[in-house]
Amino acid sequence: MTTFDILTIDTNLVNANKASDGEVSSDTLALANDGDAQTLSLEGIARIDLHFPKFTDGRAFSQAFVLRRRGFQGDIRANGDVLIDQLMQMQRSGFSSALLRADQNAEHGKKLLSQYSAFYQGDTVNKPLFTPA
Amino acid sequence: MYQYTDFDQTFVQTRAAQYRDQLTRNLAGTLGDDEFRPLRLQNGWYIQRYAPMLRVAVPYGELNSAQLRILGRIAEEFDTPPPELLAHAQTTQDKIGNGPAPKLTTNYGHFTTRQNVQFNWIPIEKSADVMDLLSSVNLHGIQTSGNCIRNITSDERAGIATDEAVDPRPYAEVLRQWSTLHPEFAYLPRKFKIAITGSVEDRAAIAWHDVGLRVLKNASGEVGFQILVGGGMGRTPVIATEIKAFLPWDQIINYLEAIVRVYNGWGRRDNIYKARIKILVKAEGQRYFDEVEAEYQRILADGAQHTIPQAELDRVRACFVFPALDTVSSAQQSTAEHTLVEMAGHNTEFARWLEQNVASHQNPGLRAVTLSFKRMGQAPGDATADQLKTAADIAERFSAGEVRVTHDQNLVLPWVRVDALIELWNAAKTAGFARANIRLLSDMIACPGGDYCALANARSLPIAAAITERYQDLDELFDLGEIDLHISGCINSCGHHHSGHIGILGVDKDGQEWYQVTLGGSDGSELSGPAKPGKVVGPSFAAAEVVDVIEAVLDVYKDSRDGGENFIDTLQRVGFDAFKTAANSARNATARTTDHAAA
Fold it and tell me: B242: which strand partners?
């Protein structure tokens, strides 16, 4: 499993050289959740912020997947309405960090990330269960 | 039937544990109701009119006896509301129409139009216990609701139909696994329903689905899929269009991934009534098709990790073989067939049961037998706890322990020996499952409607009961022949009224129950012709008028039919107007005094 950073507002502020929600530094891009991840220029970009306007709006999962497929190896960060019960889907779809909504319990979120040991379908991290050994 | 592996079993148990954690946090107040809602929906838990509703997933309709017994246990031990709640519900229902409402029932399961099983009274505090119990037999409610890929439905005669080109079940199972907890597609614009058939006759109504799949062989004998996209019922009934005439079988996941990914990105999120893929396909047309093709090419270029290996198809397909029954020798077959003909000759009830409820089979020594769950005194598709257990026993005794939940809310026994039919008929009669009405008028589809469902505009069950009561006589039912009557309590169309030869839709006008009647719909079967929605006959009718309307429509059929013509054939030949006039002539409460008839 690749690493996945669960960030809260406080940890985010502590890491002063990382941009917090809403601000971008020169090597960070924020892509709107109706933006085209397939054509976005990735030149010189170290981090891409993808947005969840509501946690039920799942467009960013596909954006993250497409970015990883294009070979982007930097940080893909979730922001907005980010809840611990979707962290697993985020990690599998290609996110490498998530800035939690203020009321979310990061400790419990960490536990939820390791609830399942394996899945049926492949994703950006795992091969499909049916892949020949 | 698919044989669940240790991996499958552990996975379902993990899911039950995940749900328990979510429920516990919600009850403790650390997981809000809004945040909990999609999580419980994707485990099958709705909050309904009076009580939670659970929708258990039944993959392409297949259940074994052990699973049926657990469903029976759940009905018996868990499907009970607190007495005050039941009393309150009954009192509230009694206030709706004129006079007391039919008695609300508890401790039963309901077979749905998507081959699933529903329970209407399990308290939410017990929901995690129920999920644990279900997981012990590899059952669950995974993705039976929510904006995700739902239960994949199929033909009730998959694997046994005489007109089958390719058994769709192995592919349905592979696709089920691929869609289960798919991380990218858990928060789509809206629900996503897939149906698959492998026969010439479409018993799965594939053209009415978001994606319809037909597995077939091309001219070279290679197996592949015809793919339809963008069908659906509801407010805007649409028939799916073909996006791919033939896709090699091992590419099906890759292509579906493209279809759903583009839908995830482009589907509307601003208006839930415009969020289904049918709206996107209508709005974008070729542009959507082109983007799916482009995305599919990108998936291929990326290595297509979901190309299905032959070994995986072989592994899954090995489960879907004829069960080890003693072979019916041709001598036994011949003797049995003679006995059946003889008995049918002097027993009309048995003759009719043979004709309507018993179907031919790929193995000539076997039959497919439908147990009818359409009778007076119970809502269509309902089975009490005892009936679920009895069905399990009958399946074990007569059908190698397997049943299928059908799209029309009955159960099919897929492996019945021809020389066991008489014994089965007797057992089915004792159990109350032997009504010889399959495909006849009283074999109607009805959703739970306003008695149970918070979405409903009107009750469907009293209408279903009234029509069942009026048309009880088997002679009359046989004379009327095959008719698809579908009843929905609201425009969400869970009762599939759009595809009925006769459709009834509950509407709410001024806080009262009214019913729109449609004629000439089709589910895409050979009997009914190409899939299409029925046409409304006029303004809605009062509840008390509905049975008279049905009678008037059927009288036109009886008066106009040519020889042994079916209802739908007469309607198509004679035309809509005569039936429309007859239906509207049955108005008394809603009769208009002027000539201005609203559309």
Answer: B228
B170 shares a domain with B105: no
- Beta-bridged to residue B517, according to DSSP, are B504
- Residues B500, B573, single domain; the answer is yes
Record the tokens describing residue B68, joined without a space.
Answer: 């049926």
pLDDT exceeds 90 at position B403 = yes
Residue B299 lies in a domain: yes
User: Which percentage of chain B shows pLDDT scores above 90?
Assistant: 92
Place of tokens 């058994």: B167
The answer to whether A78 and A93 are in contact (CB under 8 A) is no
Task: Say yes or no: B165 and B295 in one domain.
Answer: yes
Flag if B186 and A89 touch (Cβ within 8 Å).
yes
Does B209 share its domain with B84? no
Question: Looking at the DSSP assignment, which residues form a beta bridge with residue B244?
Answer: B227
Mean pLDDT of chain B: 95
Domain end point (choices B276, B297, B317): B317
Contact B208, B486 (CB under 8 A): no
Sign of CA dihedral B9, B12, B18, B20: negative
Residues B233 and B184 occupy one common structural domain: yes
Kindly determine whether residue A61 and residue B184, on different chains, have CB atoms separated by under 8 Å: yes
DSSP annotation string for B204-258: S-GGGSSEEEEEEE-TTS-EEEEEEE--B-TTS-B--EEEEEEEEGGGHHHHHHH
A-B Cβ pairs (cutoff 8 Å, strict): 97
pLDDT in tens, B224-254: 999 999 999 999 999 999 999 999 999 999 9
Domain that includes residue B565, residue range: 445-585
Span between the terminal Cα atoms of chain A, in Å: 18
pLDDT above 60 for A20: no
Q: Which of B279, B299, B317 is the last residue of a domain?
A: B317
> How many domains would you assign to chain B?
3
Mutation site for B-interface testing, chosen from A39, A40, A62, A82 by largest number of B Cβ within 10 Å: A62
* pLDDT over 70 (residue B594): no
Q: For the full predicted model, state whether its pTM sits above 0.90.
A: yes
Q: Any residues with CB less than 8 A from the CB of B506 and at least 6 apart, and which?
A: B449, B450, B456, B457, B458, B459, B460, B463, B487, B488, B489, B490, B513, B514, B515
What is the dihedral sign for C-alpha B529, B535, B537, B540?
positive
Q: Could you tell me if B44 and B166 lie in one domain?
A: no
* Residue B62, pLDDT score: 98
Largest Cα–Cα distance of chain A, in whole Å?
45
Q: How far apart are CA B43 and CA B27, in angstroms?
A: 16
All residues of chain A having their beta carbon less than 8 Å from the beta carbon of residue B186 are: 58, 61, 86, 89
Task: Report the C-alpha gap between B14 and B153 in whole angstroms.
Answer: 24
* Among the listed residues B261, B266, B246, B267, the one whose alpha carbon sits nearest the alpha carbon of residue B302: B261
* Structure tokens that stand for B260 in this block: 């759903």
Phi, psi of A82 (to 5 degrees): -100, 115
Q: What is the pLDDT of residue A22?
A: 47
Per-domain residue ranges of chain A: 5-113
Asked whether residue B83 falls in the same domain as residue B130, the answer is yes
Strand order in the sheet with A5-7: A5-7, A97-99, A75-80, A47-52, A28-31
Whether the CB of A55 is below 8 Å from some CB of chain B: the reply is yes
| Partner-chain contact A121 B182, CB within 8 Å | yes
What's B257's domain CATH number?
Answer: 3.30.413.10
Asked if residue B298 and residue B171 are part of one domain, the reply reads yes
Work out the widest C-alpha separation in chain B, in whole angstroms.
Answer: 71
